[in-house]
Amino acid sequence: MSPIDLEQIPALADVEPVKSTKTPLRLDYEYTAGAASSRFLRAVKEKKLRGQRCPKCGKVYLPPRGACPTDGVPTTDEVELPHTGTVTTFCVVNVPFHGQQMEIPYVSANVLVDGADLPLFGLIQEMPAHDVRMGLRVEAVWKDDDELETSLENIKWWRPTGEPDADPSTYEGQM
Questions:
Q1: What single string gives the DSSP state of each residue in 23-36?
Q2: Is residue 118 located within the same domain as residue 174?
Q3: What is the pLDDT of residue 2?
Q4: Are residues 37 and 101 in the same domain?
Q5: Alpha-carbon distances, residue 85 vs 14, 25, 70, 82, 150 (angstroms)
Q6: 50 within 8 A of 64, measured Cβ to Cβ
């Protein structure tokens, strides 16, 4: 696609395009969760991680969506998963931004919960950011019971378990 020549549009011929702008932005979403997501969120409120297994390919989805995206069949078998997992990918955030609530540097990561086939997104804390690595074994740190809601924010962050790092072959398909 070629760029639009503003000089060909009389009303815009004298307009100098703005190349960039800074706009503070916050997006809050409210949605009605379906049956699978509702069961998952109610379990998270009880500090449980409950996924669903595809009866055809055997993959365990966390959070569940009610159907396998690969096979298109309902995922009706619920699976309770542990609160431990492996860092598959991560990003050390060093750049401050408007509305930031965390002290930099901090680490955002994909955590493959043990027994699941898709990672969850979360924060890694209780260790220096420069020590986070792929394969790091972590465990969930939950909000206090009186603060729990039907939200994945119930997991405040993930922290190292002290176990040896996972073998790369156990998470290589997640990178």
A1: ------------HH
A2: yes
A3: 63
A4: no
A5: 57, 32, 23, 8, 21
A6: yes
Q: Which two tokens stand for residue 74?
A: 């309902």
Checking if the pLDDT of 54 tops 60, the result is: yes
Record the tokens describing residue 5, joined without a space. Answer: 């020549």
pLDDT above 90: percentage of residues in the chain: 72
In DSSP terms, 49 is beta-bridged to 81
C-alpha–C-alpha distance, residues 173 and 175, integer Å: 6
**Per the domain annotation, does 74 fall within a domain?**
yes
State the pLDDT at residue 114: 98
Sign of CA dihedral 108, 109, 113, 119: positive
CA distance 119 to 58: 16
Q: Terminus-to-terminus CA distance in the chain, angstroms?
A: 32
Q: Report the distance separating Cα 157 and Cα 151, nearest Å.
A: 13
Count how many domains the chain has.
2
Tell me which DSSP letter residue 36 carries.
Answer: H
